[in-house]
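Record type: monomer structure entry
Structure origin: computed from sequence
Chain ID: A
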Amino acid sequence: MDFYDRDVVSIRDLTREEIESILDLSEKMVPYATGEKVDRVLHGKILGNLFFEPSTRTKLSFESAAYRLGCDVIDVSEMSMTSISKGETLADTIRMVDAYCDLIVLRHPYEGAARLAANFSINPVINAGDGAGSHPTQTLLDLFTMRQAKGSLDGLNVVLVGDLKYGRTVHSLAEALTMFGAKLTLVAPDTLQMPDEIINHIKEKGCRPAKTTSLEEVIDKADVLYVTRIQKERFPDPAEYKKVAGTYRINNAMLREARRDMAIMHPLPRIDEIAPEVDSSEHAKYFQQAFNGVPVRMALLCAILGGEI
């Protein structure tokens, strides 16, 4: 598959075959991501990391991926550190950063910011999360983790639980899993269910997701339990957040009903939705999931910037 010089703004921009090719390349990157092997195939390239929202895993894994490949990084982590604080438009900021690097990775609080950036940048843009919109590289590492845990992505029974309204990770993931014939169950309070726009899109692709507010009713059927944090920062009304905070909490007692090989995933950070006692269980895959951001993003950087390993 030819990814050279391509933007990655939404998972909708990728076909199933293209996703599989990135996952295959990610598998080859694992020993380079751990440092077992070394290749500076992107020496001389510069990555522009623009993170206008807080991030730990995404930001650090992109940096790690770049350094593992010999690529330098220029970093902006706050709007206050740019001329946006003086009134410069995002479009002009992107034009300037575009002149200083070979690829832009953008996280921004406003949905649609990555698409705008791609329109104004000559060099490729990777969306690292735009508000409650999309997070395609998280989706790719989620799929990679599921394939590691289950051996195949085809026809998995995946339960998505928590904040499905504001959680951009589950928006992209639901659309990607539909390409692989997944059976989706959406577990959330009524006020935090998956947006109709996402539901309608996956229905057009042949998926008929089930909806419920009860995790206990469906946990025994799950191949993968994908847990999300209820995101306080996305709520326009703090009182509404308080009504749903702590709705779901996974602990070992609940897991007695689960399949022995069920995988628990979480894009992190977690607050209290997964008890620490679950970390040592065979179900827990979320820390491996976080590591997988490095080989997957290494694969993307190589594919887009033309590096071959």
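Annotation 1: The mean pLDDT is 91.
Annotation 2: The chain has two domains: 11-134+292-305, 136-290.
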